[in-house]
From TrEMBL:
InterPro entries: ADH-like_C, ADH-like_N, ADH_Zn_CS, ADH_Zn_typ-2, ER, GroES-like_sf, NAD(P)-bd_dom_sf. Belongs to the zinc-containing alcohol dehydrogenase family. Pfam families: ADH_N (PF08240), ADH_zinc_N (PF00107). It comes from the Bacteria. It catalyses: a secondary alcohol + NAD(+) = a ketone + NADH + H(+); a primary alcohol + NAD(+) = an aldehyde + NADH + H(+). PANTHER family: ALCOHOL DEHYDROGENASE 1-RELATED, VACUOLAR PROTEIN SORTING-ASSOCIATED PROTEIN 11. Signal peptide: none annotated. Its EC number is 1.1.1.1. Residues 12-330 form the Enoyl reductase (ER) domain. Coiled coil: none annotated. This is Probable alcohol dehydrogenase AdhA. Its cofactor is Zn(2+). It comes from Paractinoplanes tereljensis.
Length: 332
């Protein structure tokens, strides 16, 4: 088989990421061997490749929005059969015993492990997935449409919940890529008035097509005070901008795993009147199950830009340059 490995993390994506022949992995006890049918290209992959995230596994294969079918099961696996369509997401494993896991906050487990960072992911022909962290997938979507749901969708869903949006509330979304365009649809389906702020003219057009009330530049003032906001763009300069757009008592959730430095905040202007800032860390499996159940009952429009698997470096470069509308997806 062939797979893409992060040879030398750095800003030159085509130097950092190389395609090499690899041995087909064997499923360990509790794991599934999966043939990759689609793998989404996530901004977190970009952070792994460029070195903005520290190396966890040398020469790791990126990719954690994996759709595939089961080829083989390791010892002890139940509930899956050869040929089943399955998904794998960012969260790959936890200790299951710490106080966070016991409290239902497994995303905060100190021993958590991640697909495409701690273990090889989906930028390859085959991969392994712990069966306890694999997802059944809803019908009615293509493999390419399902792939972005497995991180962009799940993380956006968790960020929306962290933003404490009241029923029928006013939501601001800053940045409008793979995750944001799915989150906006969830919020709109639940009755929210959504305002989108992004530098991309094409993304603003997509936002309006999906039902956003307005779509402006990333640094614009919202047309009405916001009760909640989600920051998807990894740009710390937008934190005070988003805070100033909030009404009294509003909440800003920051969805990314990486964010450039946040400038100094002015307490009276940016935080006073009980405005709240929250981070979002990975996801729980329940987040994934909830999002996929929502997708089964509400047909989401998933904007996909397909790339053949042998152009993974091009897909990441296009993502870095803002040339991808919606979600880039690798297809074998």
């Amino acid at each position: 088989m062939f797979g893409w490995q992060v040879k030398e993390p750095g800003p030159d994506i085509r130097r950092a990421l190389i395609r090499v022949p690899m041995v087909v992995p064997r499923p360990a006890p509790g794991e599934l061997l999966v043939a990759v049918d689609a793998c989404g290209v996530c901004r977190t992959d970009l952070h792994v490749v460029t070195g903005e995230l520290p190396v966890h596994r040398p020469r790791v294969v990126p990719g954690h929005e994996i759709v595939g079918h089961v080829l083989e099961s390791g010892d002890g696996v139940t509930g899956f059969r050869a040929g089943d369509r399955v998904g794998a997401a960012w969260l790959r494993g936890t200790d299951g015993t710490c106080r966070f896991c016991r409290a239902g906050a497994e995303n905060l487990c100190p021993e958590s492990r991640y697909t495409g960072w701690d273990a090889d992911g989906g930028y390859a022909d085959f991969t392994t997935v712990p069966a306890d962290f694999a997802y059944g997938l809803p019908d009615g979507y293509s493999d390419a449409e399902l792939a972005p749901l497995l991180c962009a969708g799940i993380i956006g869903y968790r960020a929306l919940r962290r933003a404490d949006l009241p029923p029928g509330g006013r939501l601001g979304i800053y940045g409008f890529g793979a995750s944001a365009h799915l989150t906006a649809q969830v919020a709109i389906a639940e009755g929210a008035r959504v305002h989108v702020f992004t530098r991309s003219e094409q993304a603003r057009k997509l936002a309006l097509e999906l039902g956003a009330v307005s779509a402006g530049d990333a640094y614009d003032e919202p047309p009405e005070p916001l009760e909640s906001a989600v920051l998807f763009a990894p740009v710390g300069d937008l934190v005070p901008v988003a805070l100033r757009g909030l009404d009294r008592g509003g909440t800003l959730a920051i969805a990314g795993i990486y964010l450039s430095d946040i400038p100094a905040l002015n307490y009276e202007r940016d935080l006073f009147q009980e405005r709240t800032v929250r981070s979002v860390t990975a996801n729980t499996r329940q987040d994934g199950r909830d999002l996929l159940a929502f997708a089964a009952s509400h047909r989401l429009q998933v904007a996909v830009t397909p790339y053949p698997m042998n152009r993974a470096a091009d897909a990441l470069a296009d993502l870095a340059a803002g040339r991808v509308t919606g979600a880039a997806v690798l297809l074998p």
